[in-house]
Amino acid sequence: MASGKVENVKGMYSDAYLEVLGTESNLRQFEFGLRAMGRMGGAVRTFALAYDDFAFHPQLPQILRGFSFERAVLRCGNPGRIAGVDKEALIWKGLDGALIPAIPNYKTVPVAKMGCCLPGRSGGGINTMARTLVGAEKAGFRTVLAGGLQDHTMTMHGEYEWEAFNAISPVQATPTTFADYLAALAPDSEPRFYTADELLGRPWAWCGFGSLNEMAREDRQLERLLVTAEMFSTLASAFGRAYPAAQFDQAWKNLLSSQDHFVYGCGGAQNPEGYHVGGLQEPYMPNYPGPRTPITTETVGREWKNYVEEVAREALDGALADLLRRETTPAADAPAQVVVHNAANWERSGEVQCWIPAVPGAELIASDGEREQPVAVLARGAEGGAARMLVSFHANAPSLGFRGYTIQPRSGDASGGMPRQTSPLTLENRLLRATFDAQTGGLSGLREKSTGRELLRAGQQARFLCAYPEVDSARATARLEMDRSDAVAAGVRIQGVFGRCAYQLRVTLPHESPVLEFELEMDYGRGAIFGYKGQPGTLLRHLFPLAAGAVRRINLPFGVYETRTDNPVALDFLDLGYDGHGVAIINDGVPGLHLAGDGVAVLLGDGFPPLRGLHRCRYALYPHAGDWSAARVWGRAREFQQPLAARPLHGARVALPFVKSYLRTPPGVVLSGLHLHEGRPRARFYEPQGVARAVETEWAVAWEKPGLTQLDGRPLGAAEQDRGKVRFDLPAWGIVTLTGAALKGGRS
What we know:
Blueprint: H1 23-38, E1 46-47, H2 60-66, E2 71-73, E3 80-82, E4 90-93, E5 99-103, H3 125-138, H4 158-166, H5 178-183, E6 192-193, E7 199-201, H6 203-207, H7 212-237, H8 245-258, H9 261-265, E8 276-277, E9 292-293, H10 297-325, E10 329-330, E11 337-342, E12 348-357, E13 364-367, E14 372-383, E15 386-397, E16 401-409, E17 426-428, E18 432-436, E19 443-448, E20 453-454, E21 463-466, E22 471-472, E23 479-485, E24 489-498, E25 501-510, E26 516-523, E27 540-544, E28 551-556, E29 559-562, E30 573-577, E31 581-588, E32 593-596, E33 599-605, E34 614-625, H11 633-641, E35 645-649, E36 652-653, E37 659-661, E38 663-664, E39 670-677, E40 680-686, E41 693-699, E42 702-704, E43 707-709, E44 715-718, E45 720-722, E46 725-730, E47 735-739, E48 742-744
Parallel strand pairs: 1-2, 2-5, 4-6
Antiparallel strand pairs: 3-7, 4-5, 8-9, 10-36, 11-16, 11-35, 12-15, 13-14, 13-16, 14-15, 16-37, 17-18, 18-19, 19-20, 21-22, 21-27, 23-24, 24-25, 25-26, 26-34, 27-33, 28-29, 28-30, 30-31, 31-34, 32-33, 38-41, 39-40, 40-47, 41-46, 42-48, 43-44, 43-47, 45-46
């Protein structure tokens, strides 16, 4: 390595698919990966992937440059597709304008994909090398880079390539590193921006491979929980609470490890024996006698995730308790009070649920001292002999902060709120009206009331589809009943069967929400396959008959992009923009989509390997006036994925109104994370709408010596501070890291 013959590459902590991971996971993969590889010796300056990995998206150049990468290799294998360019080298341009030299995926020059084919077959060995050389000559190349990264799980055939070189005397072959290869070339001077469609993760890779959807949703949920715990723990540290740095560090290592694509694909949900079978032949050869590698990813992955959840919940609970202790007064006869907390850096509203000691009264309200909201009792129970109840109400919470509520009996003259809905055929609030087919349970109408538009095609209904086995829920019978109808929300429960697999779909419309929510449970039993591998239009999917002719936009980490592909992958949402309005399909861990003449479908299952056991997934429809930016689709997606949370106050009371915000930012700025790094506070912000901004952040804690740094800590200069306000510039689509010597509490 010291001589330059061996090169450290990639720099990620695990072989994770970055485009379907949250913003902080994208950054921590490199932060922890580079730290680990640094202990091996030698810096990592090249980003390159093995054949069975895919981690590209248009904001990657900004991330790579932020972590001091000097070059990239735009090649991948089976899980994705990168547009070909017939250049020996080029300058890859990111969405924000960041530039990095790169080796492209050639357009007309065939290159063997290491490990994917045996010698003599199409795509591998001697024949490929001959075609590579012929193609390079036709393209006018002086040099061509053959081969690539080698993964230990793949078949080596490098020696055949060298035999091919030696057989052609005019060709001189030299073993090289990516660094040396690029150093010998002059990249094309015109930067090349790759769109989201040109860096495309294949959707069938995200909706199948055994258990990927289920595990992806768990990883996203745990990431949000861990980031929230870090935020409030950092704020609590400003007032003297010890920050659990070692526990957070290990929790991130566990979470990043669980994001590896092999943990996704080879868990026990795919194979109940806990084995990864050579060649994945088990569905076709149940008595396969060949070698089995006992990688207990399901067991280990579950242990990793349990640790992450335990650390995050304990840290969050302790930090919230410490922060609230400063605001509350001990009281033996305290009323039933809850504090709603919000980890987003914007004020938001939504349904919140919380267990509290039982409160007498036929009807209850939640009062914040200024307004009253009706309360729904969803469940009752007991703990330690004391009666408890699970309450739900519509709450509001300030940016990165708290709001207090008292749960109390309703007075006789108070308003009764929304009328109860009794028919499972209609869900309606002041914003939306959704109707369902009485026989099939399919969504047959969706009207956005502010514009008066019907969003579904006339005479059509949403339905579940699959080519093999044949599934069309519009031709089947389902059972419909009210799932809930209370002071906060109304919901319908739809139950049916696909072949031998039972499903239950809950559709919920909160009274104050513009978002229609879907929660699907599928029981695949001992194993089921739906559709044909690699053909999204045949897979198990939930189709919504939305109108054609829309401008399609998807989001990926740190960016939003127009897409023309019929099979996109969306991190959080796909937005269909029409003239003056639109509708967003928001997902929570089901990012694969299929668009065809009959509408837009959320991909639920893949053709191979088989799915097993009980799977749950969540997605939603958000009809809106205006375009995606004006409708804050990115914010609605975050709010759907991470609902407001609340904690009861035990033996204490807070004077109402109680509203506490620790951070205020201008609209259009997103806080990705806030944590302590080596004892110093670090906050990361990004801009999600493509508008450069002069940002003024207002904090309830004081930053000592605030400054701006690159993602890897290299200083960029000081940040302006004045009486609790910290100012800095945020470029369009930019990521900015704010650091300081310390955080100090005491500001009101």
